[in-house]
Amino acid sequence: MAGNPNYDTQAPADMDYPEHERTYNLFLSMFKWGTIGVIALLLGMMVGLLGGGGFLGGIGTFILALVIGYFAAR
Q: What is the pLDDT of residues 20-45, one digit of tens each?
């Protein structure tokens, strides 16, 4: 059964809002760069494995996609 809480509900703890914002900005940055990395990887695999570009074509496409993603994300 649910009982009464054993902590003070009238005076909650102070929040560290600058730390919350830093953590959220880090999360957004990691999400953005993770998405760019996965898209670049998939494009490189597509060109290298399916498009007939071979290993060097796939690597070139991967690097080109990362560079385009870098300038697009700025």
A: 999 999 999 999 999 999 999 999 99
Contact status, residue 36 vs residue 66, Cβ threshold 8 Å: yes
Radius of gyration for the chain, computed over Cα atoms and rounded to the nearest angstrom: 23
User: In angstroms, rounded to a whole number, what is the distance separating the alpha carbons of residues 49 and 58?
Assistant: 8
Residues 6+ positions from 62 with CB-CB distance below 8 Å = 40, 41, 43, 44
Sign of the torsion formed by the C-alpha atoms of 35, 26, 72 and 67: negative
- Mark 11-35 as b/e (b = at least 16 C-beta within 10 Å): eeeeeeeeeeeeeeeeeeeeeeeee
Q: What is the pTM of this model?
A: 0.77
14, two tokens: 């102070």
